[in-house]
Amino acid sequence: MTLHVSDADLADLRERLGRTRWAKSWPVDPWAAGTDGGELRRLVDYWASSYDWRKHEAAINALPSRFADIAGATVHYLRYDAEREGAPPLLLINGWPSSFLELTGLAERLSTPSKFGGRPEDAFTVIVPSLPGYGLSEQRPALGGVPVHEIWHRLMHDELGFERYGVHGSDIGAGDAGWLAEAHPEAVTGLHVLDVTGPAASEPADLTDDERAWLAENKRWHADEGGYSHEQRTRPLTAAQGLSDSPSGLLAWILEKYRAWSDCDGDVSAKFGDDFLLTQASLYWFTNTISTSFRPYYERYHQLVPRLERVTVPTAVAFFPADIGGRQPRAWVERFYNVVRYTEMPRGGHFAALEEPDLLATDITTFFRQL
Fold first, then answer.
1. For residue 79, which phi and psi values (nearest 5 degrees)?
2. How many other C-beta atoms lie within 10 A of the C-beta of residue 188?
3. pTM (2 decimals)?
């Protein structure tokens, strides 16, 4: 199966972009009240006139894509075979608002480390799936049902035949990775995440001062920055209709997050090229999956998936300073995970695999080498 957007769909996108009805501006500083109109207009103009989708479509089709039918839906994944025989398998899971494209550079570093100054003996066979309802993977047929982490186990164990495998995840992917490790400790050799899930019930009574400070910081972050999450977990289909009908609206929704959640010092172009941002937006647009990308928020909020209790497999946590929600103290993480490695990174944010792929690849490699 290859990705091919019809000429008619390309023309429709450009026509919609050309007919964008712009929101009236406010007398506020750029980005103070949401996506900056000037930056959005610049990107929309480029998207409509000069951005070459066909070039990026060809690059996507050149990736090592595979497809599998699991739990009633087609799952897309990339497979990067290691540069050495007998390399351990490793599953990489992204978060929102992203796609498998975020992880291709990291996968290359982990599967062929010698190309990036590393050692062949540190190579992994890397699997990068598209989350259900993201891009090239179908959404699951029913709310609840077979949970996403079980789909990943069936992919790795039943479809690909890996008896044991490692897992890395960020954001939504970190949650699924944690549930996967909790549910299948016999299969997961180690868990590497960029944030953690918890607690299962109410807050513990014996919190340390660091934990209390982090919880207060996290609460402030959600009050200031969490509006998107509240909408996506409570009334996702309301926002989804507008974002599925307006490419400029879709881009505005995504663009704000790439700026606010990355270590870019307010300049999104310092970390992400225009073509990358527009390819991510185009992938959501042409597959019409922004709506289904909201499902994890809704399902978790409505307790259609279990809360994590305790991960017993060896766990590494790497915190990047500009990531969302603040740095979770080690004492907090240890309440829910078997922490054997805890790293505070010097730079980077929510999209660490793109922002700092070498730092992340080194941390993942070091962790699994120790195991």
1. -125, 120
2. 25
3. 0.97
Residue 202 pLDDT level (bands cut at 50, 70, 90): low
Strand partners, 117: none
Which amino acid is present at 306?
P
pLDDT of residue 206: 86
Beta pairing class for 65-70 and 73-80:
antiparallel
Name residue, tokens 């307790």: 303
CATH superfamily of 59-210+309-370: Alpha/Beta hydrolase fold, catalytic domain (3.40.50.1820)
Residue 121 has pLDDT above 80, yes or no: yes
CB-based contact 78:64 (threshold 8 Å): yes
Q: Give me the mean pLDDT over the 296-319 stretch.
A: 94
CA distance 17 to 33: 23
